[in-house]
């Protein structure tokens, strides 16, 4: 599942007529890069949640789709259900098996096919804290379990999750964080530290950073 329902307000004028997932990075859009890498990782079906300007995303993907993926859309109306509510709303489309969750507004070179968990209800990918998020989100124990205790790393917006993790939560507007916190308190979430490329493309400045990275690493992204 790709989370693509946010309004992209931090992008300012760049997202007035263009949804953030459709902002261009080299020859691909943000969301197009994810779809390409998901297809390369062996994924065959993708759910994308949509809200504000969602039809623009759908129309773009219909007209330019070339990844061999079956794409299903979860519509949330003009106001998004936030990250947690968006996943819960899409559960009927996701089935019963663990699913990969990816935020549309990140740039990464992680191998999605390498992600796995053997116990609990999910795995969150973490990175060293970037300057704009120095406090981090979650701690990581020596045996790979997530904890609320410091030192903390930053959640990437990439996770492998069991749908059962959301079973007791209502399909209403809510972020993912309280859902993750509840699961961490029960020892149900593992974590993976990733030291490769990852960038939160959430502001015009970081979009320019991402474009510079794409220019420097054309063959690898």
TrEMBL record:
InterPro entries: GlmU-like (IPR050065), NTP_transferase_dom (IPR005835), Nucleotide-diphossugar_trans (IPR029044)
Keyword Nucleotidyltransferase: yes
Keyword DNA-binding: no
Positions of the Nucleotidyl transferase domain: 1-115
A Pfam family that the UniProt record links to this protein: NTP_transferase
Assigned keywords, A-Z: Nucleotidyltransferase, Transferase
GO molecular function: nucleotidyltransferase activity
PANTHER family: N-ACETYLMURAMATE ALPHA-1-PHOSPHATE URIDYLYLTRANSFERASE (PTHR43584:SF8), NUCLEOTIDYL TRANSFERASE (PTHR43584)
Protein's name in the database: Nucleotidyl transferase domain-containing protein
Species of provenance: marine metagenome
């Amino acid at each position: 599942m790709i989370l693509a329902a946010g309004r992209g307000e931090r992008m300012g004028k760049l997202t007035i007529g263009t949804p953030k997932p459709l902002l261009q990075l080299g020859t691909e859009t943000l969301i197009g890069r994810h779809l390409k890498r998901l297809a390369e990782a062996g994924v065959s079906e993708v759910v994308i949640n949509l809200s504000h300007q969602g039809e623009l995303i759908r129309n773009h993907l219909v007209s330019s789709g070339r990844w061999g993926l079956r794409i299903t859309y979860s519509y949330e109306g003009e106001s998004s259900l936030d990250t947690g509510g968006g996943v819960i709303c899409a559960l009927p489309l996701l089935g019963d098996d663990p699913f990969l969750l990816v935020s549309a507004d990140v740039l990464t070179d992680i191998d999605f096919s390498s992600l796995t968990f053997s116990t609990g209800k999910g795995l969150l990918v973490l990175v060293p804290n970037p300057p704009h998020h120095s406090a981090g989100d979650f701690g990581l124990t020596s045996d790979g379990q997530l904890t609320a205790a410091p030192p903390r790393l930053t959640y990437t917006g990439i996770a492998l999750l069991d749908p059962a993790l959301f079973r007791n939560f209502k399909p209403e507007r809510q972020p993912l964080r309280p859902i993750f916190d509840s699961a961490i308190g029960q020892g149900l979430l593992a974590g993976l530290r990733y030291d490769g490329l990852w960038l939160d493309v959430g502001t015009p400045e970081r979009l320019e950073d991402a474009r510079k990275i794409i220019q420097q690493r054309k063959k690898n992204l």
